[in-house]
Amino acid sequence: MALACALSAGNGARVEEVKKSGAEGRSVAESDTGLTASLVGGRYRLLEVAGRGAMATVHRARDEVLGRIVAVKTFREQAPDPQHQLRRHGEMEVLAHLNHPSLVQLYDVGTEASADGTSSVTYLVMEFVEGIDLRQTLRSGPLADEDVRRLGADLAGALAYIHSLGIVHRDIKPANVLVPDPSPRTGRRLPVKLTDFGIARFVDAARLTQTNTTIGTANYLSPEQARGEPVGAPSDVYSLGLVLLECLTGRIEFPGQAVAAAAARLFRDPRVPQELGEPWVSLIPRMTALSPAQRPTAAEVATILTEAATEVLTPSAQAPTMLAPTVPDPADDGSTRLLPAPPPRPPKAPPPRRRSFAPRTVAAVVVLALIVLVVVLLAVLRPSSGGSSQQPSPSIPASPSIPGPLGTHIAQLERSVRP
Question: What is the domain extent for residue 39?
Fold first, then answer.
């Protein structure tokens, strides 16, 4: 896997992709560093080169005291830029003030004797990030919308932080954005890192460039940078807008050679496709407004993109629609279709009520019981027929007439007990 250093090698320099090549233990006395010591600063053992530019070389190194991997950036004595010493000290001053999860962290600074002993080599020791830069990531095409929202929120938050300290980066571009590998322990995404403060400066510091001299990368310059005017925090916001647009479309908005690319933004605004949707169709035109005063602050951009990223990650408040399972359709050609949802179950019927006897039925039963009792008593009290003189048996009075089936049963009972 390619290794990305925590800070690129210099202004406008192409950071090289270097694979692990078994360079551990190699002598530090290399022609491009001018160092003679086996350990830089007595503790940092240089391993393979992670990047090389016009002003400096970045090595992957091991901190022998703390046992961790770091990035060591060494500055050449013979650099094309005559003011490289001022820039070097400016970078140290900037990095020493920074402490943010989306910015590289400075661990140490120092000087080391050169090979001939006539001069010294300055070095910075910084956080080393395993991953690749955003420029390499975009070679595979545009990023997903939700990934750009999170990436943009990280970068805007980092810019808001450095702007609050009075620092302007002045070289926001994909090559200066590191995309770390996921966390080896949790597998979670780590915040992207904004790198290379080699040309950053404090807003109120003395300018290091000559009049009408432009510093930055032509494809991502702000209009005020292209005109050679003083720049402030809005310049970083403009460049970030171009980087986010490239992440969404996969193409550089102002391509070409330096002069043509720089001049193009003075004659037209960036083209933001409407199909990108919100928040991009409203946010990026504001970020890339020609007038710096019309651009939002980095803090405002961070708030908008953080809220937009939260909306993507938060599930909808509505209950999910439950679909019936899919089953093969014999009449189809192997495709599947959705079964219709089953009809709603009818409400349960109330439990049956106990049948109660009507008052008329109760009265009829009572009357029947009384009649049976009378008949039994009459049968018991009837005199015996054993004497010589027979007396006529008393007649049994007829029971009252009762209509219906009950009356019929009573009449049959009376006939059965009569002599």
Answer: 1-129
Cβ(254)–Cβ(245) under 8 Å? no
CA of residue 1 relative to chain centroid, distance? 25
Q: pLDDT of 171-228, one tens digit each?
A: 999 999 999 998 878 888 899 999 887 777 666 555 555 445 556 788 999 999 999 8
Q: Do 234 and 139 share a structural domain? A: yes
Q: How far apart are CA 390 and CA 23, in angstroms?
A: 149
Do 301 and 158 share a domain, yes or no?
Answer: yes
- DSSP type of residue 4: B
Q: Which two tokens stand for residue 270?
A: 């960036």
Helix (H) or strand (E) holding 283: helix 280-287
Encode pLDDT of 87-106 as tens digits: 767 777 777 878 999 998 88
What is the value of pTM for the model shown?
0.64
CA dihedral 139, 144, 150, 156 (to 10 degrees): 50
pLDDT tens digits for range 150-167: 999 999 999 999 999 999
Ordered DSSP codes for 339-385: PPPPPPPPPPPPPPPPPPPPHHHHHHHHHHHHHHHHHHHHHHHSPPS
The CA distance from 401 to 407, in Å, is 6
Residues annotated catalytic, as ranges: 171
* Whether the Cβ atoms of residue 112 and residue 37 lie closer than 8 Å to each other: yes
Among 45-49, 75-79, 177-181, 182-186, the least confident range: 75-79
Domain count, the chain: 2
Q: Give the tens place of pLDDT for each residue, 234-251.
A: 999 999 999 999 999 999
Give phi and psi for 389, each to the nearest 5. -90, 115
The answer to whether residues 84 and 19 belong to one domain is yes
Q: Are residues 119 and 147 in the same domain?
A: no
CB 240 within 8 A of CB 301: yes
Its sign, for the CA torsion 8, 14, 19, 22, is: negative
**85, 109, 129: which is the final residue of a domain?**
129
